[in-house]
Amino acid sequence: MRIFLLLLAFFFVLFFDNAEAQKYYDLDSIDLKVSELEIIHMVKNPKDPFDDSDVVLLRLDLTNNGNDYFVISAKMFKIRVIQSSYPGTEYQPHFNMIDNYFTAYNAELETRFKDFRPLKTFKDCEYMNDRVFLGESKSFGICYDVKQRWSNEPLVLGGSKKYFLTLMDNAQTTSCPNCINIMLTNDMIKLDDQSRDVPFWIKDYARKWIKNQIVDSTYLKTVDFLINEKFINIPNVEQSNFAKSPTIMPDWIKNYAWMWVNGKIDDTSYLNWIKFFVERGIIRA
């Protein structure tokens, strides 16, 4: 009996040592880059403000430099969100993971946002499971539905929360430290402003502001969003925070918002007017 128990203990240790050391793929030999990042604010149901989302679209370039056979699946990617537990202290900050998002696919996104007209937005969100041979490079897209359950504020990169795209070596469990982490930053957002459609919710806010259905600080969230997400480029302004600051804004600016809402000026003209007002100090904290 004693010999049997010893043998059982030996095989138990051997099995779990091998399981812990198992790697599906060597990710040190995988070169992964984010070539394009886009964040689209989505409103599922205006009557339920805690169900808004930001759809995050990522275009990725991957090169297999060392695995004889590598199968890449969208399920191997996650967005992990971390935040300092003790902000503003003199001690080394301790970071905790506060959210974990899984890949979303075009079918479920089109169902969830069925009232969102340009469904071509989700063309890069198809299910992906593909082979990448040794020495081969491939480009593909993945998407995430980042729900605004708590703050109900648009996703802002560069703030207190840090968003990381993480590639695991399998589609079932975490594989870190055998994983690839890439922090998502504003630098990844394409700066071709004129080719980007202004999110439809910006115009909804402007329409309500004109009718005095929302206060100035709520409207200023749209100005912050347009600047922080690089729809408007203003030199030497990294982060706009008009909505949370005492801000001077003349009431006559509503005339320009009215012209935009009613189709008298296009998106580009509206963005240029907002840029002008901020640069000239007409809108200022």
Explain this structure.
The protein is of the alpha+beta class and 285 residues long. It has two domains: 164 residues, Sandwich (Immunoglobulin-like); 86 residues, no CATH class. The protein has six helices and nine strands.
How is the CATH topology of the largest domain named?
A: Immunoglobulin-like
How many angstroms separate the termini? 79 Å
Percent of residues in beta strands: 25-35%
Proportion of helical residues: 25-40%
Topology, please?
Blueprint: H1 2-21, E1 30-42, E2 53-64, E3 69-73, E4 77-84, E5 95-104, H2 106-112, E6 129-133, E7 137-147, E8 161-167, E9 180-183, H3 200-210, H4 216-228, H5 254-261, H6 267-279
Antiparallel strand pairs: 1-2, 2-7, 3-6, 4-5, 4-8, 5-7, 8-9
Task: Summarize, please.
By secondary structure, the protein is of the alpha+beta class. The chain contains six helices and nine strands.
Structural key phrases:
alpha+beta; Immunoglobulin-like; 6 helices; elongated
